[in-house]
């Protein structure tokens, strides 16, 4: 009976999906979100130290793990898809006669509705911890981890708002900005704050590539050039220009490729974008299978919920584990060797279970909030087709 209901749901989702839906682009978005979630779970450890908890990363003591960041640092793909969807959506809105403000409000509404729930919960948690006498350093560590995903949403929202201005911008222009910023910072000893220009310029590169993709200007040949050229440029920057091999920040490192983005992070993103372009057709064929598409649709309908709550899920599992009375390997122990890595991999399903609990509790905020019950029921009855149209 359960298998029958599941099969019926899969068929309903497949049938309710608009014929023109680009399923491959949705799959790329889902992979990007899951990459970020998995990467954070693998390289973020909360280690008890006396009466405090502090964050630690296995990348600090095990630099040979840097290739993990090459697989799980997928932000460029998300910005690529974001530029693609925003450019397509804005063009369609103009054809329907929808104004810029209405279009932007619809785009940003689904981004920031779940943010309110995160901020409300963590405001209450922070107040409760401080009033109960928790160590301020521990509270700072927890809040920083919980709210760190918000920086990404702010950048993404700013680029979305600028879509009418940047949708025809050549990606070489922001790439040139990143190049010159790094040249001044690292080549001529310029001020470190200059690197924050790359927060906008660096992510504008894949975003404008996505807009070009929406216009049909990013062909498979262009994808091959981006993949090979981006990979070669990144390898050269790491091997001969002194850039870190890790594509995420490493505690204690003199330079982070991600905070703010460096030229190496951007060229690495170009390679990822090239690979995404090449994967579009194989993914489209694979997603003709209703079960595969249903899984991708589910992730996309809850993308922001998964993204915003994955760190909270990690912290909740870590806190509950403390009830065992002794440090649990891979959860509370310092990341100091291969044994820790293997133990952490074993914890990933438990983190996933914690995230499922968060998803169950907070997914309604992404779909319109608890007040919009009629809209939620309508989308459930139609298999989420309307939500997929707006995604």
Can you walk through the features of this model?
It is globular and about 60 Å long. Strands 1-2 form a two-stranded antiparallel sheet. The protein has helices at 2-16, 23-43, 58-61, 66-72, 75-96, 100-131, 136-147, 150-161, 163-166, 172-187, 197-214, 220-240, 263-286, 290-301, 303-321, 338-366, 373-381, 385-390; strands at residues 45-49, 52-56. Helix 11 runs parallel beside helix 13 (263-286). Strand 1 (45-49) and strand 2 (52-56) form a beta hairpin. With 391 residues, it is mostly helical. The model is unreliable at 370-387 (pLDDT under 50).
Give the class from helix and strand content and strand pairing: mainly alpha
The radius of gyration is: 21 Å
For the biggest sheet, the summary is: 2 strands, antiparallel
Secondary-structure element pattern, one letter each: HHEEHHHHHHHHHHHHHHHH
Mean pLDDT score, rounded?
90
Considering the chains and any ligands shown, give keywords for the structure.
single chain, 391 residues, mainly alpha, two-stranded antiparallel ribbon, 2 strands
Outline:
This protein is 72% helix and 3% strand. With 391 residues, it is mainly alpha-helical.
Please specify the SSE layout and strand pairing:
Elements: H1 2-16, H2 23-43, E1 45-49, E2 52-56, H3 58-61, H4 66-72, H5 75-96, H6 100-131, H7 136-147, H8 150-161, H9 163-166, H10 172-187, H11 197-214, H12 220-240, H13 263-286, H14 290-301, H15 303-321, H16 338-366, H17 373-381, H18 385-390
Antiparallel strand pairs: 1-2
């Amino acid at each position: 009976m359960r298998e029958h209901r599941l099969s019926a749901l899969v068929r309903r989702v497949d049938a309710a999906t608009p014929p023109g839906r680009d399923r491959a682009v949705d799959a790329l978005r889902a992979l990007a979100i899951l990459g970020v979630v998995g990467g954070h779970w693998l390289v973020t450890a909360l280690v008890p130290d006396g009466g405090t908890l502090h964050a630690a990363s296995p990348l600090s003591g095990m630099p040979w793990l840097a290739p993990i960041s090459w697989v799980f640092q997928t932000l460029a793909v998300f910005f690529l898809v974001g530029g693609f969807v925003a450019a397509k959506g804005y063009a369609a809105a103009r054809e329907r006669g929808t104004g810029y403000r209405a279009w932007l409000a619809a785009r940003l509404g689904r981004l920031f509705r779940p943010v309110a729930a995160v901020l409300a919960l963590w405001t209450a948690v922070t107040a409760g911890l401080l009033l109960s006498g928790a160590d301020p350093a521990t509270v700072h560590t927890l809040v920083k981890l919980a709210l760190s995903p918000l920086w990404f949403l702010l950048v993404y929202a700013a680029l979305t708002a600028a879509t009418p201005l940047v949708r025809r911008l050549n990606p070489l222009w922001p790439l040139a900005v990143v190049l010159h910023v790094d040249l001044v910072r690292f080549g001529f000893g310029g001020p470190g704050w200059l690197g924050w220009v790359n927060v906008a310029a660096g992510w504008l590169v894949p975003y404008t590539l996505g807009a070009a993709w929406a216009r049909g200007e990013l062909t498979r040949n262009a994808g091959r050039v981006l993949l090979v050229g981006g990979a070669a440029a990144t390898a050269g920057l790491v091997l001969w220009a002194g850039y870190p091999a890790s594509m995420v920040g490493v505690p204690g490192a003199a330079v982070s490729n991600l905070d703010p983005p460096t030229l190496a992070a951007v060229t690495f993103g170009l390679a990822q974008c090239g690979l995404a372009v090449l994967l579009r057709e194989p993914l489209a064929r694979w997603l003709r299978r209703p079960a595969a598409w249903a899984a991708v649709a589910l992730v996309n309908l809850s993308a922001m919920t998964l993204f915003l709550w994955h760190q909270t899920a990690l912290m909740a599992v870590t806190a509950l584990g403390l009830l065992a009375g002794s440090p649990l390997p891979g959860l509370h122990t310092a990341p100091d060797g291969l044994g820790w890595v293997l133990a952490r991999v074993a914890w990933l399903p438990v983190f996933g279970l914690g995230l499922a609990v968060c998803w169950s509790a907070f997914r309604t905020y992404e779909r319109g909030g608890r007040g919009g019950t009629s809209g939620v029921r309508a989308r459930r009855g139609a298999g989420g087709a309307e939500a997929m149209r707006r995604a």
